């Protein structure tokens, strides 16, 4: 139901392309660099039928039925059908095609592990998934315990979703999505105070008045072309950092205490909807609460995931700090 869930599938299954009957075309269109990593390892990906473009409205139930799937995997919300897509659900059900729903986007802290377990069960990969879940739960347990034991003030955080140099201010998570990560690691997401849903828009006056202590921007591999922050497959640290510096020079971000103090960071946008969110959580933990998490190494965590779990290792920059020589 959503092409970018291929990364989740690669965590669960050693041959993720081999089990694809059809998929939405959003990965090719929105993250070509990651798609190309998969294509290099599994050339057969080019022959997988596409059943829609990059939106729920573009999803063709006729094309989906024509590829005769044994199972439909749909998401919570995003680019493909969701639990609210009654016609799609009814048509698939009438055709005798079972459906499972996964959620790495709406309530990621709550639903990442159950979603992975569902995929592991239906694909016969319980042992593989169990090993990743053990790692995931152990690491999150450490973070929860340290935050619970601390009475230090929570730093205010602006998480700017896919900013560009000519964009206004500011896309932000609200309650849910990446905002959950900020709360988990001991920060205060300023978007959660005014946005009722998982994602929304903050106005410049509110951001200036709140004056966050930490600024985090998300970006994609095509950030250089769009005027955003290049992050992800094929991106190097210098390129990511240059894009991050450019988006922080725009009004009103350039007037924030976070920027003046050099507390500026970048994250891969697709962490917002991925079971690899563990890497983003550990990066945020170190940025927001260095007093508690100086020992965390999100780069080493991604290296371990690449080596031990992912059928197609991710190669590029997925978390970066503007003023950290180590990245």
Strand neighbour order, sheet with most strands:
7-5-9-11-13
For the terminal residues, how far apart are their CA atoms? 35 Å
Strand portion: 5-15%
How many β strands by DSSP? Answer: 13
Mean pLDDT: 93
Helix content: 40-55%
Order of secondary-structure elements: HEHHEHEHEHHEEHEEHEHEHHEHHHEE
- So what's the overall shape? globular
Quick overview:
The protein has 327 residues and is an alpha/beta fold.
Can you tell me about this structure?
With 327 residues, the protein is α/β, with parallel strands linked by helices. 42% of the residues lie in helices and 13% in strands. The protein has 15 helices and 13 strands. The chain has helices at residues 6-12, 26-30, 32-41, 61-66, 86-94, 108-122, 126-148, 178-184, 204-210, 223-226, 237-248, 257-260, 277-288, 290-293, 298-308; strands spanning 23-24, 50-52, 72-75, 99-102, 156-160, 171-173, 188-189, 199-201, 214-219, 232-233, 264-268, 316-317, 319-321. The protein has a five-stranded mixed beta sheet, sandwiched between helices. It has a two-stranded parallel ribbon with strand order 1-2. Strands 3-4 form a two-stranded parallel sheet. Helix 5 links the parallel strand 3 and strand 4 (99-102). It is globular. The chain starts with 5 loop residues before the first helix and ends in a 6-residue tail after the last strand. The model has no long low-confidence stretch (mean pLDDT 93).
């Amino acid at each position: 139901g959503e092409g970018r869930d291929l990364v989740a599938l690669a965590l669960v299954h050693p041959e993720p392309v081999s089990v694809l009957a059809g998929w939405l075309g959003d990965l090719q269109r929105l993250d070509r660099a990651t798609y190309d990593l998969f294509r290099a390892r599994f050339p057969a990906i080019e022959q997988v039928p596409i059943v829609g473009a990059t939106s729920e409205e573009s999803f063709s139930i006729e094309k989906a039925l024509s590829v005769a799937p044994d199972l439909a995997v749909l998401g919570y919300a995003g680019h493909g059908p969701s639990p609210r897509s009654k016609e799609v659900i009814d048509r698939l059900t009438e055709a005798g095609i079972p459906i499972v729903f996964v959620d790495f986007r709406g309530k990621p802290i709550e639903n990442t592990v159950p979603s992975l377990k569902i995929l592991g069960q239906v694909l016969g990969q319980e042992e593989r998934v169990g090993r990743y879940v053990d790692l995931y739960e152990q690491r999150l347990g450490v973070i929860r315990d340290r935050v619970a034991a601390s009475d230090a003030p929570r730093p205010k955080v602006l998480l700017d979703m896919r900013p560009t140099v000519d964009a206004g201010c500011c896309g932000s998570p609200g309650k849910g999505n990446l905002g959950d990560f900020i709360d988990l690691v001991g920060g205060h997401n300023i978007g959660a105070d005014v946005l009722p849903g998982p994602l929304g828009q903050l106005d410049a006056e509110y951001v200036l008045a709140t004056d966050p202590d930490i600024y985090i921007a998300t970006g994609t591999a095509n950030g250089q072309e769009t005027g955003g922050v290049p992050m992800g497959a094929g991106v190097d640290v210098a390129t990511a950092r240059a894009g991050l510096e450019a988006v922080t020079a725009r009004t009103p971000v350039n007037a924030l205490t976070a920027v003046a103090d050099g507390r500026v960071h970048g994250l891969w946008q697709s962490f917002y909807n991925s079971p690899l969110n563990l890497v983003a959580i550990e990066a945020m933990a170190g940025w927001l609460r260095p007093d508690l998490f100086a020992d965390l190494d999100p780069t080493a965590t991604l290296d371990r995931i690449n080596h031990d779990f992912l059928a197609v290792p991710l190669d590029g920059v997925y978390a970066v700090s503007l003023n950290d020589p180590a990245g």
